[in-house]
Amino acid sequence: MTPLVIYQPEALLFWFLAPLAVIAALAMLLVKKAVHSALLLAWVMITLAIFYIAQDALFLGIVQVVVYTGAVMMLFLFILMLVGVDSSDSLTETIPGLRPIAITAAVGFGGLMLALLGRATLGRDAVGLEQSNAEGNIQGIAHLLFSTYVLPFEVVSALLITAALGAMVLAHHQRTNVRPTQREQAINRFRTGSLATAAGLPGPGVFARHNAVDVAALLPDGTPAENSISATLQARGDMVDSSQFQLGKIDTSIDEEK
Amino acid sequence: MNPYNYLYLSALLFTIGAVGVVVRRNAIVVFMCIELMLNAGNLSLVTFARINGNLQGQVFAFFTMVVAACEVVIGLAIIVAIYRSRRSASVDDASLLKR
Predict the structure, then answer these.
(1) CA-CA distances (angstroms) from residue A11 to A53, A101, A111, B1, B26?
(2) Contact A167, B78 (CB under 8 A)
(3) Contacts of B54 in chain A (CB under 8 A)
(4) Among all residues of chain B, which has the CA nearest to that of A18?
């Protein structure tokens, strides 16, 4: 068998994209927002798809784009939007001393793997896939998949069906209590809460000055009503200070004179 | 350049993913780091297929992708179920069995 020859364009491709992939993977750990992590991971996956195609694995490269960046990452983003923003996005260390230990262990593990690879692969010639891909990559994979690996293939189909069923079972949410009707909710509001919120919470926005959902409504005495803003916006800190929309001291001075 | 460089890249990505699983607190980011580790494993499978000159590595990478897809579906369903009951996606908060 003739040894594998890698031409200059592939080497250029590798040395251009591999550092970018590593940087994106590192940035995935360092960025604060989970959505940014997801986008960086999508970039790493696209890079890997390009590497697969460069390594004569055309089918896997396309499947990587369709399955990982197409389906899996969209599912991740969908769940991120569903779950929303909470305190788990912060990068503070909750277990003291975890980070130095993790980094030390990673350096040790990575160094061990690199050293092992360097020793294990020295002095061996790569073969290349020209012979195996002679009839085409997809035909070659199909030939293996439906002859030697037909039993694992069937087992994988069973796994897929089981996973679909499991997801349905996990996502199914059975109510343990009866949903309160609007009438019951109204009665509860009057009986338990204070009368100030009996008519419902105030809506956001300062009428005639600023009518956006991120501005707390101003109460008649001029103080902002914090409960007029969605809790999600408050958690994110995406609020505009509504005191800048107050009418100044006109109302209060008249009040004081009286 | 020889194809072993792909293996080095794969080792690096796998290590970065492992660090992420340990360090990050958001369950979804932890899960994405697991996906990164699976992808690194796939890259080395594809590279080994090329080095050894047969397609079995690619077939196994294909199987890994299917298993990873199943894992994502189940894992995200679990995360959503935990979020529903605890109102948090942080792995530190999910110590339900402890209490």
Answers:
(1) 14, 35, 23, 6, 37
(2) no
(3) 132
(4) B9
B50 contact partners, CB below 8 Å, separation of at least 6: A4, A55, A56, A57, A126, A127, A128, A129, B3, B57
Over residues A134-152, the pLDDT tens digits come to 888 899 999 999 999 999 9
Rg (CA), chain B: 17
Distance, in angstroms, between B20 CA and closest chain A CA? 6
SS3 A210: strand
Residues of chain B contacting residue A148, judged by C-beta atoms under 8 Å apart = 56
How far, in Å, CA of A25 to CA of B16, rounded? 7
pTM: 0.78
Q: What is the pLDDT of residues A53-111, one digit of tens each?
A: 999 899 999 999 999 988 999 999 998 888 876 656 667 777 778 888 988 999 999 99
Q: Report how far residue A24's alpha carbon sits from residue A44's, in angstroms, rounded to the nearest whole number.
A: 7
- Please name the residue of chain B whose CA is at the shortest distance from the CA of residue A98: B23
Distance, CA of A52 to chain centre: 24
Q: What distance separates the 2 farthest-apart alpha carbons in chain B?
A: 55
Nearest to B71 by CA among A74, A166, A35, A157: A166
- ipTM here: 0.91
Tokens of A258: 């009286």
